[in-house]
Design brief:
Elements (H helix, E strand, L loop, with lengths): L2 E5 L7 H9 L5 E5 L6 H4 L1 H15 L1
Parallel strand pairs: 1-2
């Protein structure tokens, strides 16, 4: 299983590129934070932790 975490303001990958990457991996998930950069684990700590815990629960 693959999970991509990103933000709306990601300047490296466009939304279309992220969707294309997701489509390349069957069952992959994509989560986009409303704002922030590469530090979404800090700037969106609670949301990040919920997403990560949900991912880890599914991989057990």
């Amino acid at each position: 299983m693959a999970y991509s975490l990103s933000t709306q303001s990601n300047l490296v990958f466009t939304i279309a590129e992220r969707e294309s990457l997701k489509a390349s991996y069957p069952g992959a998930k994509l989560h986009t934070f409303a704002s922030g950069g590469h530090l979404s684990g800090i700037t969106h700590r609670e949301e990040f932790n919920q997403v990560l815990e949900g991912f880890l629960d599914k991989t057990e």
